[in-house]
Amino acid sequence: xxAVTCTSQSATDPLSGxxxxxxPEPVAPDGWTxxxxxxxxxNHHDVWSLRGxxxxxxxxxxxxxxxxxxxxxxxREVVVHAVVASPDWAGDETLDPRRSLLSEVxxxxxxxxxxxxxxxxxxxxxxLSWEHAACLPTAWLTAYRMLxxxxxxxxGGTVLVQGAAGGVATALVQLGAAAGLRMWVTxxxxxxxxxxxxxxADRAFEAGARMPERVDAVMETVGAATWSxxxxxxxxxxxxxxxxxxxxxxxxxAELTKIYFKQLRVVGSTMGTRTELERLTRFVVxxxxxxxxxxxxxxxxxxxxxxxxxxxxxxxxxxxTV
Length: 322
Ligand SMILES: NC(=O)c1ccc[n+]([C@@H]2O[C@H](COP(=O)([O-])OP(=O)(O)OC[C@H]3O[C@@H](n4cnc5c(N)ncnc54)[C@H](OP(=O)(O)O)[C@@H]3O)[C@@H](O)[C@H]2O)c1
Hints:
Bound molecules: NADP nicotinamide-adenine-dinucleotide phosphate
CATH superfamily of the largest domain: Medium-chain alcohol dehydrogenases, catalytic domain
Oligomer: single chain
Shape: globular
Pfam families: ADH_N, ADH_zinc_N
Strand content: 25-35%
InterPro entries: ADH-like_C, ADH-like_N, ER, GroES-like_sf, NAD(P)-bd_dom_sf, Zinc_ADH-like
Structural class: alpha/beta
Helix content: 25-40%
Order of helices and strands: EEEHEEEEEEEHEHEHEEHEHEHEHE
Organism: Fodinibacter luteus
Protein name: Zinc-binding dehydrogenase
Number of strands: 18
Number of helices: 8
Distance between the termini: 11 Å
């Protein structure tokens, strides 16, 4: 089968270990299902794997990809849930200390076929296109849990999203706006900020700008570059939800004094549960939310999508058709 594989890793030249070519088709073990993918999508996670972060070298070669949608072995249209919990785990899969994401232990979705545990698929609603379905399992699910499970905000509340154009950032803006939250974004680029406003953000600010008023919650995926700004932008008692650190995880100042003096809550957030993925798929259809798609490429041209993500020029999701 055709697949996008990580064959070696380099912190400085991640694309050197990317291979688009033939791989043996996987065979589903007992209790697993085979999904013939129709669409898949790219995440920063795939670039981290190529850089050697989160994927030990002794597991290579590894088929990349966490996002995918296709037809399972019973002929159903499904969206793949990328969080693989231990077989005996019950409850919130993201809290299983032995969980992994597809492409960390088991081959991922940037392929013609992926095998996953039977509980790792949810029904694709008829009203959800294949392209939009592939956007949901990682960046969008992460955004859903950040906003609706972990932020503690209510309709009318103000939420600041650090970064405007990324997969998680655009999902946060579109989901928050659809749920009646006042969404503000920062961006290093004016045009990307304006695009966020077109997607439903109330206002866009340049990176590091002082907010006109303190916000109820900050959604953080940028990390070191924006950490102090996130702490300074919150109202007393507000919440930072952090799910990533694209610019590094060692900020110049940890801001410990401000965190305890303003009684801020700092909440870590990772992916989401199968139940949250089901609710997300229902919500986007019912609310008429269409995930922002940067580009749609055949899987054979996957390298072009990776190049755009490494260059930092992606707006929304890069989708691959299989
Ligand atoms: N914990 C989880 O479960 C989980 C799930 C998904 C993603 N993540 C993590 O979240 C992060 C974002 O993922 P993604 O897929 O949305 O990636 P992406 O599409 O590459 O997003 C990059 C985003 O970072 C923003 N950014 C702002 N300042 C930056 C800086 N100094 N350097 C680099 N980027 C900067 C960009 O905003 P502007 O260009 O508008 O300035 C853009 O919104 C990644 O680190 C990823 O690993 C974690």
